[in-house]
Specification:
- This protein starts with 5 loop residues before the first helix and ends in a 12-residue tail after the last helix.
- It folds into four domains: 219 residues, Lyase, Ornithine Decarboxylase, Chain A, domain 1; 207 residues, Alanine racemase (TIM Barrel, Alpha-Beta Barrel), CATH 3.20.20; 84 residues, Methane Monooxygenase Hydroxylase, Chain G, domain 1 (Up-down Bundle); 49 residues, no CATH class.
- Strands 4, 13, 14, 15, 16, 17, 20, 21, 22 and 23 form a ten-stranded mixed sheet that branches.
- By secondary structure, it is α/β, with parallel strands linked by helices.
- The radius of gyration is 30 Å and the shape is globular.
């Protein structure tokens, strides 16, 4: 224990790689947030979690750090400003936040505020999102980019918004939309702001590789671009065409794929400019990746920095424009994930565990000396390093054979239980013997997987980490305290849902750069809560979460960090109650209460329940409807 250090914990959990300077571990072994970097103010997440509980805020809880959002907005804009200055680029840069990444009102308002000095704009991909965006305070020179499928109501709303002083650019994603935009402009006698989205042949990489290419969902083909250009000339509206847009997908791990798409997209821009299109903006879309695991090798990582990304975008666009001798545009990006992923942490508590390791073999009654049991007894007693490999395969074979014997009635229930007990005891002994033995590394790895604990955790994968389930996304998940202690075991994490997929068994492995199935954890103390944190969950997870088993939104808090290390809880958003979640699936609270009360009255009449018991049941039922969908601690546990 004395040889364990906090620095070893940092290396083990990779926080110094994926933390990107925003997260660290202090000398107490607690995970801290440092939005302004290591030299800035620090927030102790374990301390905050305990203090939130004292305020009556429950776990699981989503902690949102406004300071981190502000830091990310500043970082991305600074990177482009640096690139523009270094390249002597003659155009400008404007970021646009696509609200589909996270539409939470508090976050949108913070982004608009923090992005004010950078003219940060907003992007919407649907009619409801457009209505949200139009109601926001508008940043000076900030643009609104309208993407997605559009009907006439969507288009007319966007066209009319320009009369409010909004710079709303309607991007033509399908050729059928352009005549609708022209019709709306004529109807309201106004000049629309139009963009074309081009369908690139170049593809990205990673999980969203099909966002580009000939079979991609959105975008105009080369011939459709030309047709649209000619239609605008015919309608005397070419001066409305001011933006060209392309997008190759989200979370691009390789800078090479980004550069290839930039070169192709820039060619479309320069060709249209040469043809006379008055384009002012080149919207290169999203794709700037977030390094979730710090490996630089996986789909959850990146092999480039934000500054390298900005340098490549600016230099490639500049080179293309200089080659064709056309005006250099204002570069627009839609990098939502890179802006907001880091700012949210899901903190949840571990409720208990299931362990398969067994320090001692079972006691064998004299009347249960089955041949298989005798063989296992002998293996346990004779086991040593020399015969471990041979016995390991023997034990696996015996375990498989025991199932067949039990199925055909040749092994009774008590005998099967004894066989299983010896199986786990032998594997546990093998694991202890094989420690630090290089010749047995393969077996040691298999034993670690077989003997890993199962930690039961107070959250829902489907509600809070849907990409972990649906896409195999690896999020950084680590304990938020006790890093001054060596984690002595490994575990998989399972959630509250009664679904076999409701688990996390993909964790980052810094050494290999690949995912591993277990996480190093500490032994549980029945007198102390054990808290885990899932980091960088600010992009997509909240909106994509579903109500599997009717687990709803968690409590969420917005925290601002003071320079002296203190903090202020600027807002608390209560998680869904059971009644609210039930209403989403068309259950009415009053009707449920009435039906339950009728059942109680009928049971009182038949004598199956007393009046006092019925009153208590109704009390529990009503409190349950008003309560948290997750497991709650009693007051005496706080």
């Amino acid at each position: 224990m004395s040889s364990w250090t906090v620095d070893k914990a940092k290396e083990l959990y990779g926080i110094k790689y994926w933390g990107a300077g925003y997260y660290d571990i202090n000398d107490k072994g607690h995970v801290i947030a440092t939005p302004e970097g290591p030299s800035g103010a620090k927030l102790d997440l374990y301390k905050v979690t305990l203090e939130l509980r004292q305020r009556g805020i429950r776990t699981p809880v989503l902690i949102r750090l406004a300071d981190l959002t502000k830091s990310r907005v500043r970082l991305l804009n600074t990177c482009f400003q640096n690139a523009i200055k270094e390249c002597e680029y003659k155009g400008g840069f404007q970021g646009v936040y696509p609200i589909k990444v996270n539409q939470q009102r508090h976050l949108i308002e913070e982004l608009v505020t923090f992005g004010g000095e950078y003219s940060l704009g907003l992007e919407c991909g649907s009619k409801p999102e457009l209505l949200v965006v139009l109601a926001q305070k508008q940043n000076e020179d900030g643009i609104i980019v309208c993407n997605g499928f559009k009907d006439m109501e969507y288009i007319e709303t966007a066209v009319l918004s320009s009369k409010l002083g909004r710079h709303t650019i309607i991007v033509v994603d399908r050729k059928e939309e352009l005549p609708m935009i022209i019709k709306a402009a004529r109807k309201f006698d106004t000049k629309p702001h139009i963009g074309f989205r081009v369908k690139l042949a170049s593809k990205g990489s990673g999980k969203w590789v099909d966002s580009a290419g000939d079979r991609s969902k959105f975008g105009l083909t080369t011939s459709e671009i030309v047709e649209g250009y000619e239609l605008l000339i015919k309608e005397n509206m070419l001066d409305s065409l001011e933006l060209l847009h392309f997008h190759i997908g989200s979370q691009i791990p390789s800078i090479g794929r980004i550069k290839a798409s930039l070169k192709e997209g820039a060619r479309f821009y320069t060709e249209l400019k040469k043809m006379g299109a008055p384009l002012r903006y080149l919207d290169v879309g999203g794709g700037l990746g977030v390094d979730y695991d710090g490996s630089g090798e996986s789909d959850s990582s990146t092999n480039y920095t934000e500054q390298e990304y900005a340098n490549d975008v600016v230099s490639i666009v500049q080179n293309a424009c200089e080659e064709m001798e056309v005006e250099q545009p204002t570069i627009v990006t839609e990098n939502g994930r890179a802006l907001v992923a880091h700012h949210s942490i899901l903190v949840f508590d571990v409720l208990g565990k299931n362990t398969l390791q067994s320090a001692e073999p079972p006691q064998v009654p004299s009347d249960e000396k089955h041949k298989m049991i005798l063989e296992l007894e002998e293996i346990y007693e004779d086991l040593n390093l020399k015969n471990l490999s041979e016995y390991y395969h023997d034990v696996l074979h015996i375990k498989e054979s025991s199932l067949q014997l039990f199925t055909y009635g040749m092994l009774n229930l008590k005998q099967k239980a004894i066989v299983d007990g010896f199986y786990w005891a032998i594997l546990t002994k093998m694991k202890e013997l094989s420690q630090e033995n290089e010749d047995l590394e393969d077996i040691q790895f298999e034993l670690t997987e077989l003997l890993s604990d199962t930690f039961f955790c107070n959250f829902s994968v489907f509600q809070s980490l849907p990409d972990s389930w649906a896409l195999g996304q690896v999020f950084p998940i680590i304990p938020i305290h006790r890093h001054d202690e060596k984690p002595e075991t490994k575990a998989v994490l399972v959630d509250l849902t009664c679904d076999s997929d409701g688990k996390i068994e993909n964790f980052l492995d810094i050494e290999s750069g690949k995912a591993k199935k277990t996480l190093e954890v500490h032994s549980l103390d029945e007198n102390e809560s054990y808290f885990m944190g899932a980091f960088m969950v600010g992009a997509y997870q909240e909106t994509l979460g579903d109500l599997h088993n009717l687990f709803g939104d968690t409590d969420a808090v917005h925290i601002t960090i003071h320079e002296n290390g203190g903090y202020y809880v600027s807002d608390v958003i209560a998680g869904d109650t059971v009644s609210e979640v039930l209403s989403f699936v068309q259950y009415n609270r009053e009707e449920l209460m009435r039906n339950m009360r009728n059942s109680c009255e009928m049971s009182i009449t038949t004598g199956n329940i007393t009046r006092r018991e019925a009153a208590l049941l109704m009390k529990y039922y009503e409190e349950g409807l008003a309560g948290y969908t997750y497991l709650e601690q009693h007051e005496d546990e706080l």
